[in-house]
Structure formats: C-alpha cells, structure tokens
Design brief:
This protein is of the alpha/beta class. It contains 20 helices and 16 strands.
Length: 688
C-alpha cells in the first residue's frame, strides 16, 4: 500500500471535476455566465411572496452571510434586493425568466427552482415553498467569502429539480446511542441543506408509549413531546419525519417483559406472532400514539428478517398456509389495522420479495422498500418483483457504518449510487439511506460523508462521484481545500487493505480480541503485513485533521468522529504490531532461558514504566475517554455503559497482563523458566 496513492485508487480523481462550482447536490442544468456579484456592506435580501416558508429560507440565507461571510443583511418584502426570492408566476419572476431565455419546467413545479446570478442580483425563482427553499440552499453554497465583510457570487444560470421525489436518511435509535434533541435538530438542518426531505426514526423499543409502559427502557426512549418537537422543527426545513416502528420482527427488546410473552412467536424471542390473538391490537396501540404525532403521509412498519416465523406459536398456521401466505397475510392485516390513518405504509422488502407470485395481493397503499448493503453490479432482482406487482418502491442502500471502526465507503459509495440508479430505472419514487448500529458502537456523525453522497445521488439527474468529492469540503465545512475529502479516502483505503488481509475488514471486533490467545495471535498475525502502513496512514489523517481543522468555517465538531476513527485504526495497528513483537521477543527468550540477561531485558522491555504493555494500556485508556466524550457530546447517556465495558475490559486486559508479566519475572528469578505466552481462559476477557 502506498499511502495516498492507494486512497486515490478507491475513488475517481478530483481533476476530472475541476472547473465546476462546488455544489452538493449538483444542479441538473448549470450554465456559467460572465462576471460576478460582489457583496459588501449590508446585503439586502428581499422576499416577494407572503410566505412564512420563504421568510424562513431568507433567514437561513442571512445566517450564512453572517457566520461564513461576516456580512450583515436586511430582509424586506419586495423584488429588488441584491438577493431576491421570487415566484415564477409573478411579474418580476416571469420577466427575469424571459430575459434569461428560460421557460420554467413543469417538472420543477413541486421542488425545483431557477437561480439567476448576474453582476447586479442573485435571484431564486420557484413556484413552490420547497423550490424557494432548495434554491436558497444552492445559493448559500455559491457565496464565497473574499475577506471579512466581503463575498462574491459567480454569475450563473441554474435550472434544477430532483431525480427522486423522496430523499431520505434513516437514523437507528434502537441499538446503541440515542441522539440528543439538539443533535437531531442540527442533523435535520444539515440534511435539508443537501435537499434531503425525509428523516426516518427507527424504533424497536425506543418510543415511550403511554399505553405500553413496559415497552421502553427507563431513560432509553424518545418521548411523545420530544417527537412532536422534532416534527415541528423539521417542518420549515421541508423534511417529513417518518416513524419506523418495527411491528413484526425485531421487537425482542420490547417484548422481554413477562407481561408480553403471550405475544411472542418464541418465548423471549423477537417476533410478534400472527397466531397471538392480541398481536394486532398491540400494534394498533403503538400506531394509535404514533400517527397523531407524526402527521406526514407515511408510516413504516419494518417487518424485515422474520426468521422465527412458523417456528413456535404459528407452526400450525405455517403448516396450513405455507411461509409466503403466512407472512403476507399478516402484513396485509397490519396494513388494514392502520387503514383509518390514511397513510401509505412502508415495509422492508427482504421477506416479501421471496414470494413474487403473491405480491399482487398486497394493498396498493403499501410501499415496498427493498434493501441491499453490498456493492453489486445490479439490484434489479431486488426491486423488480414489486414493480411487476404494481407496488410503489423506495430503495434502501446503506452507509456501511455498522460494526465498523469507520464506515466502509468502498462498499457504501457504489451501493448507494447503483441501487438508486436501478431504482430510478424501475420507477422507484424514494430513497432511504440507512444507518445501523448493530453492535451499538457507531455514531450517526461517523457517516456524514455517506449521507451527503446519498443526498447527491437522490437529487442529481446524472450523479458524478468525482464532482461530489471536489465539492465535499466546501459543501460540508465551507473549506476551500480538499483535505477533508482526502481524509475519508485514506480511511477508506485502510478499510480495503484490512478487508484484503482480514477477510471481514475493519470491524469493531478487531479492536477487542485477546492478543495473547491462540486466536488473537492468529488474527493479529494475519494483520501484521499491513499493520505498519495502517498506522502510518491513520496517523497521516490525524495530523491532517489537526493541521486543517481551522480551515473548516463550520461543522468543525463533525471532524471529531473522523479523528476518532483514525485513532481507532492507529490503535488496532499498534495492537497487531505489538502482539506480534511481544510474542517474538517472548518466544526468543523462552528458547534460551539460560540467557538470564537477555530474558530479563525482554521482560523489562515488555513490562516496565515505558513497557510495551503500558503503551497498550495507555492507548486503550485514551480511546475510552475520547469515545465517552464523543458519545456524550452527541447522545443521551443511555446505553453508554454497554459499550464502555468493552473499553474497560480492554484496559483491564493490559493491566492484567502487566501484573502477569510481573509474576513471570518474579518466578523466573527462582525457576529460570518461562511459561507459555498464550493463556487458556474459561471466560473471554472482552464482552461481545
């Protein structure tokens, strides 16, 4: 591996995207014009329509001018401001369109806009509130500061509208951290800048139902008041919040109570049983509370990975109906139970797509959401069964953050791009870019590169990965360089190299293995050939972040997760190198126990004030403190202890090894022998 050169192998080079404005998403039509608009003094922002939404968008524009460009602004009603928000059917909007030779496209009616920037004025022209809002987000990215109190906008004509009607991101709120309200609000605002208009909140047992007091863990749920606040906050950003309450499988966490065992397919399992007479009423109670709080046009019932179906309480139904009808009949029954809310019902497509001959029976108010998270040449076979049955589809790729030291963008980027490509070709109307926390360790903020990339792919008519990379630093951080994109490339290089060496890649478990067990020695032995380069590249990222952090004019706190990912890679590389090095030193000494000086030097090298074991102890302790601080910066304390126990166990492992080597050293003074390095333990040192 050759450091940065290897990173560039994963992505297209930036040179291909040079000489285009750094915009995410990139507009459908962009024509550069001659000249630029100079902004200085107090910038006038005029809003033509009597629209609270337009005034809100103008306020975001004023905030951009103030915080990024250090420019004051004055917002008034009218059409002649330096920055103007106009309606396409007004006399001024129509006049500007005619002068530019642009007919406002019918396809742009609902969410599209025209942006005309000249040396005298930059005008956003749209037919809808959403169009004005999205045009403002593009205009914000076009403003470049020159000096304190000075900025410029290059002259340009833009005509733009989205490729997909629904462009979503899902946050996993059930298997690890639960974001603070302040974090959720920041995330919604930033996602909306990238023209995301759907925010899916994934619940297993993490909504605090008034009628189901045993469902949620204390301190581990979103309350109805909090959910209502999130929905209200998202509305002016044109973001629809969808509750995804698992209502078939994936409900083990909520069904642990003894009171709910008559609903389970298996005792203390994770599946609401179709054979349980009260299961539909139970689902009805959940959505009776969710529906009024989340008034958007959609409800999501999950219904994926129902592997327990037919293995317990519903065995007789399975024998009577068969697996396909058993699953789909219950899906239809859930949809019927939710019919009074007059919503479209989303469900995961993984189980239903196995029974294509039955899909035409599903109600047409249901939306199938096929999901695949690997990089494939084609995703047609996952989507086509539903389109043939006349069902609306959304596609669900993922940011590949789950169980990973840092998201695996070598997998996520082509997964997102090509899944959306095939979805569009088959008529899909939406995208849910998924974030999962299977082992509880990942943070939402780890995956911002993937969320921004998914937003671009969902909006753009012809997505271009090199162009996205060229724009990423500016769009996310208002930074003029490309250092932050390069850091993502470098961390992705580490993922690729470790996957080649370790087969499973850079998963979290790579951090926690017992280094001196036979399994640990084999594991880190496989990693040894790349460990040195892993550390060097991770340390390059750490240094780059430190050196370039000040270049981020905003969102600097989101760089903390990137830095932590790099430090985790550095620690894993160090652990692999040290595990092999200590074993080599120890085995060489054990082969010649009569050489007391060499043995004593080895034992002191491994275990002393500045010993190798102490290095690993200090490294694991530092990681723990960093992780805890990051968690509490973004999330509520709930579930944190379940993850810190892994860090604590790692720290205690090295402390125990230090005590063990002290005993070995003491015993050697009298026995002149060394025991085997590997230990046989009855209990794993690290909780999984």
């Amino acid at each position: 591996m050759t450091s940065r050169a290897a990173g560039l192998l994963l992505f297209l080079t930036l040179s291909a995207a040079a000489a285009v404005p750094p915009l995410v998403p990139y507009p459908r039509q962009l024509t550069p014009e001659t000249g630029s608009l100079h902004l200085t003094g107090v910038v006038s922002v005029t809003v033509e329509a009597d629209s609270a939404s337009d005034r809100f968008a103008a306020g975001l524009l004023a905030s951009e001018l103030k915080t990024i460009d250090q420019l004051d602004s004055r917002q008034t009603s009218g059409t002649n401001g330096t920055l103007a928000l106009l309606r396409a059917d007004s006399s001024q909007g129509a006049q500007l369109l005619r002068a530019a030779g642009i007919a406002f496209p019918a396809a742009a009616r609902d969410e599209g806009y025209v942006l005309l920037a000249t040396s005298r004025q930059a005008a956003v022209i749209a037919q809808s509130d959403a169009g004005i809002f999205y045009g403002v987000q593009t205009l914000r990215q076009l403003i470049h500061p020159l000096a304190a109190g000075e900025a410029t906008i290059d002259a340009v004509n833009i005509v733009d509208w989205p490729a997909l009607r629904w462009r979503g991101v899902q946050i996993d709120l059930s298997r690890g951290p639960i974001s603070k309200l302040s974090s959720i609000e920041r995330d919604i605002a930033l996602l909306a800048e990238f023209k995301v208009n759907v925010y899916v909140m994934y619940f297993e047992n993490t909504f605090d139902y008034r009628t189901l007091p045993l469902w949620a863990a204390p301190g581990g749920a979103i309350t109805p008041a909090e959910a209502a606040q999130i929905v209200a906050y998202a509305a002016p950003y044109h973001v629809t919040v969808i509750p995804e309450q698992e209502a078939f499988g994936h409900v083990h966490l909520g069904l642990q109570s003894e009171r709910y065992q008559d609903l389970n397919e298996l005792p203390y399992g994770g599946l609401l049983s179709p054979a349980a007479s009260g299961s539909l009423d139970f689902i009805g109670k959940m959505f009776a509370e969710l529906a009024p709080i989340f008034p958007g046009p959609f409800l999501h019932i999950g219904a994926d990975e129902t592997s327990e179906l037919g293995t317990g309480r519903s065995q007789a139904l399975l024998a009577e109906k068969g697996p396909g009808p058993l699953y789909l009949d219950y899906l239809k029954a859930i949809d019927q139970r939710l019919a009074p809310y007059h919503r479209k019902v989303l469900f995961w497509g993984d189980i239903a797509q196995g029974h294509p001959e039955l899909l035409s029976q599903l109600p047409k108010d249901m939306i199938a959401v096929p999901w695949v998270y690997s990089a494939e040449k084609s995703y047609v076979k996952e989507i086509e069964p539903f389109t043939r049955a006349g069902l609306e589809t959304w596609v669900a790729p993922g940011v590949s953050n789950w169980n990973q030291i840092f998201p695996d963008y070598a997998t996520a980027v082509p997964n997102i791009r090509d899944f959306v490509r095939d979805g569009r070709s088959l008529g899909s109307t939406g995208l849910i870019n998924t974030n999962w926390n299977d082992d509880g360790e990942s943070f939402f903020a780890f995956a911002w590169y993937g969320f921004a990339d998914g937003a671009a792919v969902g909006w753009e008519d012809v997505p271009d990965q090199a162009r996205f990379q060229q724009a990423y630093d500016w769009a996310m951080y208002r930074s003029d360089g490309h250092a932050f994109n390069q850091q993502i490339q470098d961390l992705t290089t580490l993922q690729v190299e470790l996957r080649a060496a370790m087969h499973n890649g850079a998963t979290d478990w790579l951090t926690w293995e017992d280094a001196f067990s036979p399994a640990g020695q084999a594991l880190y032995g496989r990693m040894a050939p790349v460990a040195h380069q892993v550390r060097l590249l991770a340390e390059d990222v750490i240094a780059s972040l430190a050196g370039n952090r000040a270049d981020a004019r905003r969102n600097q706190e989101l760089l903390d997760e990137v830095a932590f990912g790099a430090r985790r890679f550095d620690y894993v590389g160090q652990k692999a190198i040290y595990a092999a090095y200590i074993a080599q030193l120890y085995n060489d000494a054990a082969a010649h126990p009569e050489n007391r000086r060499a043995v004593n030097n080895m034992l002191s090298r491994v275990n002393s004030i500045n010993g190798l074991l102490q290095d690993l102890r200090d490294g694991s302790s530092s990681l723990r403190d960093q992780y805890r601080a990051l968690w509490l910066q973004e999330n509520t304390p709930y579930f944190l202890g379940n993850i810190l126990v892994r860090y604590d166990a790692e720290l205690m492992y090295w402390q125990r090894q230090a005590r063990r080597f002290t005993r070995i050293h003491d015993d050697y003074a009298t026995t002149h022998t060394l025991p085997p390095l590997s230990e046989k333990t009855t209990e794993p040192d690290t909780p999984r």
